[in-house]
Amino acid sequence: MYGFRHADGLCADVSARPRSANIPLPFVRRSSVRPAPSPLFQRHRFRPASVPPPSMSDSPPRIERIDTPEGPVAVLHGRWGAADLGTRRTWREVSAQLAQHAPDAGLGWDLRSVDWLDHVGAQLLWNHWQRQWPERVALDDAQRDMLDRVAEFTVTDRLPDPHWSLAEEVDRLGVKVLHALGHGRHLLELVGQLVIDLASVVRAPRRAPWRDISGHLYRMGATAMPITAIVGFLIGVVLAYLMSLQLRQFGAESFIVNILGISLIRELGPMLAAILVAGRSGSAITAQIGVMRVTEELDAMRVMGIPHGFRLVMPRAVALAIAMPLIAVWTTLCALAGGMLAADIAMDVSPAYFVQALPNAVSFSNLGLAMAKSVVFGVGIALIGCHWGLRVKPNTQSLGEGTTASVVNAITMVIIVDALFAIAFKNLGI
Q: Hey, is 430 helix, strand or coil?
């Protein structure tokens, strides 16, 4: 298919020309001058509303100072846009030029030679003018509209500084106390519901969620043995080395068995295991129940008539009440093993002597006290984790805050309960 261009810019089809007519086609030489388009083409051709000015490299923003009969005038040239002011070199040059043209009363401003002005350049000029119009300014209507828009949406008034008030502080303290009382009330409700659920399990053992209890027992107890063993062993090594430095000065190396036995079996072993479980299992409990709140599973359970306390709180509390004493014993044994190894290396106290002297140094009542504390630790950690999980709101921020609060409160509860046990049983002579 061959064609040629007419003077009106339209293309004519010559494929239908009969081959028998040997008429040569006119040869049209390409010219550098493009023929003018037809009026029809001009009428339907797309014309943008405004043609963008040249690129930013052709006309960088600059300020020229000239003197007029009315006084000095700062004439702006170039492109004052975000793309042009975005480079570090251009920004430094423009900032230096603006610093040389301070907005005083005798200086006028002429923006009519600006090639391009957007909101970024307008905001820069408005801030340089100290957010008020100069006395003498020359600009077109579009530039004035843009500066008016920038002035309208620019925040000029700073927020007032909060002043200290005793009444506000007392009110804030009262709100925190009410929140604490609300948490305490909810925890007390969980304790009462746990007692009721345990009584129902005793009456009808077949209705108990034994599968849930066994699953929580494995996840909270068996899977916590590696980390508790490592931490307990290292704590025993550190304690033995620190004590050996002091006991060697008095020739009382054999008393390291008594010190390690009492401190690890009665206090450090159960408390260390409880702190690890609080950080590990307490956060997991809150996260699990909190995700159920976010995914509306708790609401579905309520609609189906499944009590939260019987299926969520009671299995976790029973599992931790069973697993916590076992984890405490395991952690204490690992700590004693670490202390025995360090005593053998640092003080030449043989493991045989350590094992033989340990039952005489530590009575069975200390082990019973440690087990009793561990049960209380386990139930407390489970209740605190469930409490914060049930109070999670259906958003991710509340889930993170609840998990953090659960771990902090559980560790604080462990330390407080351990201190109460120490004071109470010391007065009893145990």
A: coil
The CATH number of the domain holding residue 79 is 3.30.750.24
Strands 11-13 and 62-68: unpaired
Is 403 in the same domain as 302?
Answer: yes
- Say whether pLDDT at 242 is over 60: yes
- Entry pTM: 0.64
Copy the structure tokens of residue 157: 């008034």
Name the token pair of 43. 């009428």
Q: Which domain holds residue 88?
A: 62-148
CB 287 within 8 A of CB 403: yes
pLDDT band at residue 429 under the 50/70/90 scheme: low
Report how far Cα 396 is from the mean position of its chain's Cα atoms: 10
What residue has token string 């040239």? 77
Provide the token pair at 302: 């309520």
Overall average pLDDT of the 175-196 stretch? 93
H or E stretch at 109: strand 108-110
Q: Do 201 and 130 fall into the same domain?
A: no
Rounded Cα distance between 126 and 110, Å, is 14
Of 307, 128, 133, 302, nearest to 209 by C-alpha is: 307
Output phi, psi for 130, to 5 deg.
Answer: 60, 35
For 3, phi and psi rounded to 5 degrees? -160, 165
Mean pLDDT along residues 381-395: 93
Query: Rounded to an integer, what distance in angstroms lies between the CA atom of residue 90 and that of residue 96?
Result: 10
Least trusted range by pLDDT, from 20-24, 150-154, 264-268, 301-305: 20-24
The Cβ of residue 139 has, within 10 Å, a number of other Cβ atoms equal to 18
For 93, counting Cβ atoms within 10 Å of its Cβ (0-12 exposed, 13-18 middle, 19+ buried), the class is middle
Contact partners, residue 313, CB within 8 Å, separation at least 6: 190, 193, 194, 197, 382, 383, 386
Helices 314-347, 210-220: inter-axial angle, 10-degree rounding: 30
Instruction: Please tell me the total count of domains within the chain.
Output: 2
DSSP state of 173: H
Torsion angle in degrees (nearest 10) through CA of 292, 295, 297, 302: 110
CA dist 327 and 22 (Å) reads 107
